[in-house]
Design brief:
The complex is a heterodimer of chains A (320) and B (252).
Chain A: H1 2-19, H2 28-33, H3 38-73, H4 85-99, H5 105-129, H6 137-159, H7 163-170, H8 185-197, H9 199-206, H10 209-214, H11 219-241, H12 247-259, H13 263-287, H14 296-313, H15 315-318
Helix pairs in contact in A: 1-3, 1-13, 3-8, 3-9, 3-11, 3-12, 3-13, 4-5, 4-6, 4-11, 5-6, 5-11, 6-7, 8-11, 8-13, 12-13, 12-14, 13-14
Chain B: E1 2-11, E2 14-24, E3 28-33, H1 40-47, E4 55-60, E5 63-64, H2 70-73, E6 77-80, H3 92-98, H4 101-104, H5 110-122, H6 138-151, E7 156-160, H7 168-184, E8 188-192, H8 196-202, E9 205-210, E10 213-219, H9 220-223, H10 226-233, E11 238-242, E12 245-249
Helix pairs in contact in B: 3-5, 3-6, 5-6
Classes of the chains: A mainly alpha (320), B alpha/beta (252).
Chain lengths: 320, 252
């Protein structure tokens, strides 16, 4: 509990740093004393605060989505980007952008979430047809499925001159976050809270179908609830800032090593860890070639694959 | 009382359980024995609604298992299958606590906590209660699963090969514990067992299956006899009386 509090404080400090990193000069004393010029105040409230909030919301909800997915699929290495979910969300967003460009963002997000749900269901259907029990083959199947769906999206985008948009959706980046363009992410947080409320069900589902039935829960219903949460969070994040790879995989796995898998206990950890990790990666991306920026997806990809490799290499002991 | 009426299950061409009608008495220990592939585990899975049956019906104290709501049944009947592969990293205490889920839905009250500590104590796991399941030996893990099922505190406890992974001492301890659960707490215990001597020593009632059908059933005295066992297992089995119990000898 004390460590969790420390982690929370560390995340707050990162958030504070994130507020004051940028090309424009915004200083805290000036803001507090009211001597800051109008431009600095505006930048602070229109760009910096929304960006920091967006980072924390997206980080926490994406990490929780990964956790939920790992519980319901019962595999440590699945998350929205290794199960075809993110790619399906992108396809859905592309399709709705083409067919109904005048729809409000919320409706487009809903279509994207539906596609994400369908893609994930397809992933699970394929898993059922291929009775493989190897821990690593499951995410491989997901990555392949994601590749196929991504190819369909690329084909459509290429034909319709939307390649640039598609690239932006697939490459998470917070530099474009402004007030009025990130609020959908609060819906992701709602998904995270729902996951916390239903945490015990997901833990039971993580014990397997037989255990779940024995304890009187409807396994299918828990699965569907979990996948709906995962799909909505993935779609919300994709539509607002673009997909963030690896996040949902790394954070829950690191948390599991320390605190285990009882979701009632791990959700707060995963939320704080996800927010902190995204903040850190974004700050690095902003500083590394200041005053220019590197998209967070790139930083996350580099850090994430290193941690992923570490997790893979220690798998034989852990996953048996 | 558990009553199965004409239940069957097939996988493709092969019929695993073929029209079994049984009534298992309330109270005591009932063991289901029989050769590999006789359909014992499948029968237990259908009785406990883990597996849907192709035809027939099962009632537990008058409740139809395929129609009764899952959480109602979960307070009457618990089931533990063999080969429980758990990917979730839980501590022993967490796992056993989930046995209270049908009652508490995740919010444990004082009564739940008493049950949890009792179940952990029964299976001699107090010292291990904070350990993660993946840090335990196969036998310790098996005991933790049984503790969870006992913590569920149901009238009927169904266990598929509960002695798997247990050494002699713990296998004996497990059977004694189940005997105590039956006599002191009035539970009805139904087991699938491979070792016919364990079945003979500790059961009240034995059901023998062969080729998906019930080959014979009855009290231990009628079942553990050379002619009955030899025809079930298709091998020579001698039965000796030792310390007032029937022990089979089949080591050629």
């Amino acid at each position: 509990m004390r460590i969790l509090l420390l982690a929370f404080l560390a995340t707050l400090i990162l958030a504070f740093i994130s507020l004051f990193v940028g090309v424009s000069d915004v200083s805290l004393p000036a803001l507090l004393s009211g001597t800051a010029d109008l431009r600095a105040t505006e930048i602070f409230f229109i760009s910096r605060v929304p960006r920091t909030l967006a980072l924390m919301l997206a980080g926490a909800s994406m990490a929780i989505a990964g956790l939920v997915m790992q519980m319901v699929v019962r595999n440590r290495f699945v998350e929205p980007s290794t199960a075809g979910t993110s790619e399906s969300a992108a396809l859905g967003f592309l399709v709705v952008t083409l067919l109904a460009p005048e729809w409000p963002l919320m409706a487009k997000m809903a279509v994207s979430a539906l596609f994400a749900l369908g893609g994930t269901a397809l992933f699970l259907r394929i898993l059922r047809a291929v009775p493989l029990r190897d821990v690593l083959l499951v995410p491989l199947v997901g990555i392949m499925l994601g590749g196929v769906i991504g190819a369909v999206s690329a084909f459509i985008a290429y034909r319709t001159n939307l390649m640039a948009s598609l690239l932006a959706w697939n490459m998470g980046d917070f530099s474009g976050v402004l007030r009025g363009r990130y609020e959908l992410l609060w819906l992701g947080l709602a998904g995270g809270i729902l996951a916390y409320i239903a945490a015990d069900r997901f833990t039971v589902a993580g014990m397997g179908k037989d255990f779940t039935t024995n304890l009187g829960l409807n396994y299918k219903r828990v699965m569907v609830l979990g996948l709906v949460i995962v799909s909505v969070v993935s779609a919300v994040v994709l539509v607002s800032v673009g997909s963030i790879p690896f996040l949902g995989l790394i954070v829950p796995n690191l948390v599991s090593l320390v605190v285990g898998d009882n979701m009632r206990r791990t959700v707060p950890w995963v939320a704080v860890g996800g927010a902190g990790f995204v903040l850190a990666c974004d700050i690095v991306g902003r500083l590394i070639r200041f005053p220019y920026e590197i998209p967070i997806a790139v930083v996350m990809g580099v850090v994430g694959s290193a941690v992923f490799l570490y997790l893979l290499l220690r798998t034989p002991r852990h996953a048996s | 009382m558990i009553i199965t009426s004409d239940i069957s299950k097939s996988y493709g061409e092969s019929t695993v359980v073929d029209g079994v009608s049984l009534s298992l008495p309330k109270g005591g220990i009932t063991s289901i024995i029989g050769p590999n592939g006789a359909g014992k585990s499948t029968l237990l899975s259908m009785v406990s609604r883990l597996m849907a049956m192709d035809k027939g019906s099962v009632t537990v104290d008058g409740l139809d298992v395929s129609k009764t709501p899952g959480d109602v049944l979960a307070r009457r009947l618990s089931i533990l299958r063999q080969d429980n592969h758990m990917t979730a990293r839980l501590t022993v205490h967490d796992l056993v606590s989930f046995g209270r889920y049908p009652y508490s839905k995740g919010r444990l009250n004082a009564d739940d906590k008493v049950h949890i500590d009792e179940a952990i104590g029964y299976l001699d796991l107090t010292a291990l209660s904070g350990r993660f399941l993946d840090e335990l030996s196969g036998g310790q893990r098996q005991r933790a699963f049984v503790a969870m099922v006992l913590c569920q505190d149901t009238d009927y406890v169904l266990l598929d090969e509960p002695l798997n992974n247990l050494d002699m001492k713990h296998a004996m301890g497990m059977m004694k514990l189940l005997q105590r659960a039956a006599s002191e707490l009035g539970k009805t215990v139904v087991l699938v067992l491979h070792d016919i001597n364990f079945a003979s020593w500790y059961s009240d009632h034995i059901v023998a299956m062969k080729h998906g059908k019930v080959a014979a059933q009855g009290p231990v005295g009628e079942m553990i006899k050379p002619d009955v066992l030899s025809s079930i297992y298709e091998m020579d089995i001698a039965v000796h009386e030792i310390a007032g119990q029937r022990i089979s000898v089949y080591y050629g």
